[in-house]
Amino acid sequence: MSGLTQRSERKSLSAPRRLRILGHRTELYLFLIPGVVFFILFRYWPLFGSVIAFKDYNLRLGMWGSPWMKPLFGHFISLFGNPSFFQVFRNTIIISALKLIWGFPAPLILALLLNEVRTASFKRSVQTIIYLPHFISWPIIAGLLVAFLSPDGGVVNILRGWFGLHPIFFLANPKYFRGVLVISSMWKDAGWGTIIYLAAIASLDPKIYEAAIMDGANRLQQIRSITIPGILPTVVILLILRLGSILEVGFEQVFILYNPSVYDVADVLETFIYRTGILHARFDYATAAGLFLSVVGFVMILTSNWISRRLNQQAIF
Amino acid sequence: MVLGRRLRYITLGRMLFPAVNGTILLAMAVVTLYPFLYVVSVSMSSYRAFMLHPIMAIPREITFAAYAKIFGYPTVWRSYGVTVWVTVVGTIVDMTVTILMAYPLSKSRLRGTGTILVAVIFVMVFHPALIPKFLVAKQLGLIDSLWALVLPTAVSPFNLILMKNFFQSVPASLEESALIDGASYTRILTRIIVPVSMHAVATIGLFYAVEHWNNYFSAVVYIRSMTKWPLQLLLREVVMQNNMDAVMGGAAVGDLDMVSVVPLTVQMATVVAATIPILCVYPFIQKYFTKGVMLGSIKE
């Protein structure tokens, strides 16, 4: 009864208002304009501009005026024929794999440990501290690393001296450089990564824990049978996302830390693109490499998403 | 009997675990904090004290000579100014565009929003590479302009979606009653939606701001003149290339002790100068973040 009257009331309200609501909607579309312009200008235009990977780009003739490359895939052919490209590709995969193996579990383990802390103030203090490096820029962290790892006067090497070990120039030594990348990257982001896992853990039903405790389960058993399976969907989704960006290896970090002595192990796809494109101005060639990077990344995300959907019914798309 | 049960409860595992756990976490905290202590200490110690005690956690022979040195150069002040400008203007631009765009997108029934959302997500997953972005900026005349540090990163798709979700969680009744009272969407957005989502909005704003403050690579790509260098780029020169040419801006004549090697004290002072604002802002981030984001997700 009241529903009917409400509907007729609303109808009579909206009839004279219909024009006004249309006017309102225009306002909403106006709101969208700045954002849409941004995406078109700075995301879609460059995306279409990637077409110069197939052209013989001439700065004067521009994107549309430049002639097509003969053969069309010419840049890609010379790219794959370039031995440095394969070294670069190899470095990218190796560094990314190392960061995945070490860096992915770290926030998870930290989160599990943090969750077991009973003293709220201790837990909060530790959290506040470990979130901090995430907000620190790479130039600053580089400064810290240079100071700590310096072959003379650096804390690490002085400690090595106390144990009778000789100093190591970590940042210029190909054997240790990748380790520096992985460890500093963990220092920066492991703490921040705990947030999402802690949120997932917090969303688990406490009643399950109570039931387990009554059945006599100890802490470890609780973690193994309740917590971990409970947050597994979250872990999987994050792993999918991580695998999707497997070719993105922390460019800002590598770029600021690398130097000619470690090019062999530190040069990655994005630094290669920067050098050939911006420094050597081989725009079309570098765009081909960039297109390769984007396409592979895209395929990776779709693939890992598909795999996960098959395994777990957990997916993003 | 109660005592017996209690005693059985206190097994070795139960006593050991919290202790081990606490120690590990404490170690993590110390490892995280110590570099900061080191940097601040070195920057405030005399060079001689540093040479004698290369490992320190508190300053020795406190002196602000290193700070006086770097702040004596006008280039440092200029870089500070550049970074502050980019951060303030950048965050305002970011927030305006993101909020304006997120609001209509939060209305799923509005025609076209679905398509736009798909377009945004697509470009998030399949993003353009560096060179095309650079060429577009070149064609727009942004090369060597500070606007190149602001415009090409105006909207982060991730933050956009976050904002949209927060707007969606605002009770529809608030909007409806305002619409019935004849309010325009502008008024609704500014007077209702944003204030209600203030925690989320503030958090996202702070994230954008930190992103701008810390960004150095955009400047590497787009900026050509040294006068437009942001602070992080200057820091990179001083610390990584280990030279003060950029800082001294050519006024190297009187400063012989700086020409060959930059003393670590000065490097560390530069590091501190670049980090201080972030450290000051951090408590606010903590406050808004823990209150807003966590509450928001738990409320669901």
Briefly characterize the structure.
The complex is a heterodimer of chains A (317) and B (300). Chain A has 317 residues and is mostly helical. In chain A, 76% of the residues lie in helices and 0% in strands.
Question: Would you give an account of this structure?
Answer:
The complex is a heterodimer of chains A (317) and B (300). Chain A has 317 residues and is mainly alpha-helical. Chain A has helices at 2-49, 62-65, 74-81, 83-103, 105-115, 120-131, 138-149, 155-162, 174-202, 206-214, 219-244, 251-257, 263-266, 269-279, 283-312. Chain A is globular. Chain A starts with a helix and ends in a 5-residue tail after the last helix. In chain B, helix 5 (74-105) packs antiparallel against helix 11. With 300 residues, chain B is an all-alpha fold. The interface between A and B is large, with 89 and 91 residues.
Helices and strands in order, then pairings?
The complex is a heterodimer of chains A (317) and B (300).
Chain A: H1 2-49, H2 62-65, H3 74-81, H4 83-103, H5 105-115, H6 120-131, H7 138-149, H8 155-162, H9 174-202, H10 206-214, H11 219-244, H12 251-257, H13 263-266, H14 269-279, H15 283-312
Chain B: H1 2-9, H2 12-44, H3 47-52, H4 65-71, H5 74-105, H6 113-125, H7 130-139, H8 157-168, H9 172-180, H10 185-196, H11 198-214, H12 217-222, H13 231-239, H14 245-248, H15 256-259, H16 264-299
Helix pairs in contact in B: 2-16, 4-16, 5-8, 5-11, 9-10, 11-16, 13-16
